[in-house]
Hints:
The protein has helices at 9-20, 31-47, 102-112, 131-146, 159-175, 196-200, 209-219, 255-267, 292-308, 314-317; strands at 57-63, 70-76, 83-88, 114-119, 152-157, 181-185, 244-247, 272-275. The protein is of the alpha/beta class.
Amino acid sequence: xxxxxxxxxQFRDVxxxxxxxxxLPLVRGTAEETRDHYRSLAMxxxxxxxxxxxxxxxxxxxxxxxxxxxxxxIYTPLDDRGRVVxxxxxxxxxxxxxxxxxPVCRRVANALGAVVVSVDYRLAPEHPHPAPLDDAMAAVxxxxxxxxxxxxxxxxxxxxxxxAAGAALRARDGAGPALAAQLLVYPATDPAMDLPSTHDxxxxxxxxxxxxxxxxxxxxxxxxxxxxxxxxxxxxxxTGLPPAVVATAEFDPLRDEGDAYAERLRAAGVTVRHLPxxxxxxxxxxxxxxxxxxxxxxREVLGALDDLLPGRRAARMSR
Length: 319
């Protein structure tokens, strides 16, 4: 564990409580056991009185996928400002689903005034790369057809942010529709996992280096295939990509690769808003209503994306 003198005290309390309850590490034996454990952590907060914010409507359906129907959940915001977001949940390509990221998608919908389509893509190890990305692209294409004329954002957190970044590459190269922006929240972009933050923050801050190594082993079991640009985003050609908001967290093993990805996007001529997360840990978007600093930073991140898109609030335009 690194020097955590600046770790947000509410997050210190969260980590201490999870450690005392033996709820960490996240990885628990098999993929199925790890999924059950992750889901129990994600859903427990609702039993403690946390109520996800209301939206105008929530609809579940399926869309055509490359191998099977892909479940999606569609959130209509309280104030629809004519945008649409394809959202790809985090969870190391192995865990997570529509329910675990329901509060996040509600926040994104209302903060942006956007219809949000959350994608329940297939998971590794049963469905390794490229299955999750293939499902994501099928959803992106469906969203573009179902909501024509709306500025379209591809978004995700953690592993989902890595998939979103890969989807932006595919769309740029002609395999998908035009995108207005990308939202990449603490993205997984570098399978080498050898930057300083993977060591400095590799233990004791919710997500561990060992967790990430296990997740990569499930998602890309053949190390030789990890050089594909859609996985090794740290070395991909980033020219011609849509504007991006990249959010990172100070006490996150993935911090440095997210920071570096933002800088590489900028160097490639892409408009970038990079928002570091002082005092925060990986996964902070999942702690809405629990950690005040996480709640505030999530709004700032979404505000930065709002500023990049047509239809932003008049109050933001007059700042």
